[in-house]
Design brief:
The longest helix has 18 residues. The chain is built from nine helices and 18 strands. The protein is of the alpha/beta class. Strand 5 and strand 6 form a beta hairpin.
Length: 381
């Protein structure tokens, strides 16, 4: 009853009360009510207000940092956070110890649950926004999974000229991170906006982008995963035996390695590293964004590059010939960054041809949007 009352008063107060907002602040596009809270201030701090007169304690959990809110006489709780880096940030309300989504903001599937989010503008990132260009389409379709013996969803981006072209288009298989699913890249990642703008400007070739849900069950029960070749086998089977055959049967896409790419973030970066680099007969283009398998996360240590990708250091010439594009990236404030840089250096010392980019930010979507933005500009030239 308390949470229901909080939600109703939160929405009602923001929908009908006239506010004097701080000068220079703005309402993020993720707000339900563009005249309400939260508000982004000039210095990129964020002002929240929650109407919960019966609550004893209210906090905002923004990116893992908890902020205690202060209650007014009328029962409105407020707080202003420290300045945030631009981009997309998950957050939650914690009301008397219960963590919930904020009804004042749109919710997205991330962190293994439906979470509120706030989108903060960044200058110079117009390619992440809808522009006056020809727009492609994103469809949700269903394929039959041989592994799970069930129908599962895919989200597929097709470029603006898809129906007009006669030749098959190149295709990118793009993977989400842990705690997310096939919706992540198309919703939080703004894949369609990025592709539309880059294709329209001639910076990227027209291509199809396929986002699948890699949360599949392992063949021996439970869910597959883990940063090892063995741990990748369930999703590798799903991708190679179900997803790719479905896409190649139903879409005008190229069916040879040079016409395919695989990329992903975090967990999906690990999948792209193992599956992409160890299956050169399938993929000739691989992008690895912010993976933790090299280090920087619990359980990652002593990564043996040559063992995990045989020949990468001892037969580098053959490795380089197999791949048209090998791209890696990481956020500069991400705990994974130094481990990633060390692996890149080790590869470059052996003349592995690898592109590497780092971007301001932690383990977050603005880094991954920029990673995709740069990666696709290298592809299919």
């Amino acid at each position: 009853m308390l949470l229901t009352a909080v939600f109703c008063t939160q929405v009602a107060a923001q929908g009908f009360r006239s506010e004097n907002f701080p000068e220079g602040s703005y309402s993020p596009v993720t707000n339900i009510n563009r005249s309400g809270y939260p508000r982004v201030l000039k210095d990129n701090s964020v002002m929240f207000r929650v109407n919960a007169p019966q609550a004893q304690q209210v906090q905002i959990d923004l990116g893992g940092t908890k902020y205690d809110m202060t209650k007014s006489e009328r029962g409105a709780w407020t707080v202003t956070t420290k300045p945030q880096v631009p981009g997309f940030h998950y957050y939650s309300l914690i009301i008397d110890g219960v963590s919930v989504a904020d009804p004042a903001s749109q919710s997205f599937y991330g962190c293994s649950r439906w979470s509120s989010a706030i989108e903060m503008k960044e200058d110079g990132m117009d390619d992440f926004e809808v522009q006056k260009v020809a727009h492609g389409e994103v469809h949700t379709v269903y394929y039959y999974s041989q592994l799970e013996e069930a129908w599962r969803p895919l989200m597929i981006y097709t470029p603006a000229n898809y129906n007009a072209v006669k030749a098959d288009l190149p295709v990118v298989y793009i993977q989400h991170g842990g705690g997310e699913d096939h919706r992540g890249w198309m919703e939080q990642g703004r894949t369609a906006q990025i592709m539309d703008n880059l294709i329209a400007s001639g910076k990227a070739k027209p291509m199809v982008v396929v986002s699948s849900n890699s949360n599949v069950r392992s063949r021996n029960g439970g869910f597959g995963g883990g940063y090892s070749w063995e741990g990748m086998q369930s999703f590798r089977s799903e991708l190679l035996e179900s997803v790719i055959p479905f896409v190649e049967k139903n879409y005008k896409v190229r069916k040879e390695p040079k016409g395919r790419a695989m990329c992903g973030l975090s967990m999906g970066g690990g999948q792209s590293f193992y599956i992409g680099l160890r299956d050169p007969e399938v993929f000739a283009n691989v992008g690895v964004f912010s993976t933790g398998m090299f280090g920087g996360i619990q359980g990652a240590s002593n990564f043996d590059l040559e063992k995990e990708v045989p020949g990468i250091l001892t037969d580098t010439q053959t490795f380089n010939k197999q791949f048209d594009v090998f791209f890696m990236s990481c956020g500069e404030q991400d705990p994974r960054i130094e481990f990633t840089r060390n692996v890149v250096k080790k590869m470059r010392d052996k003349n592995v041809e690898v592109h590497f980019k780092s971007y301001p930010g932690d383990h977050e979507w603005q880094v991954w949007r920029k990673s995709l933005h740069d990666f696709v500009q290298y592809l299919f030239k």
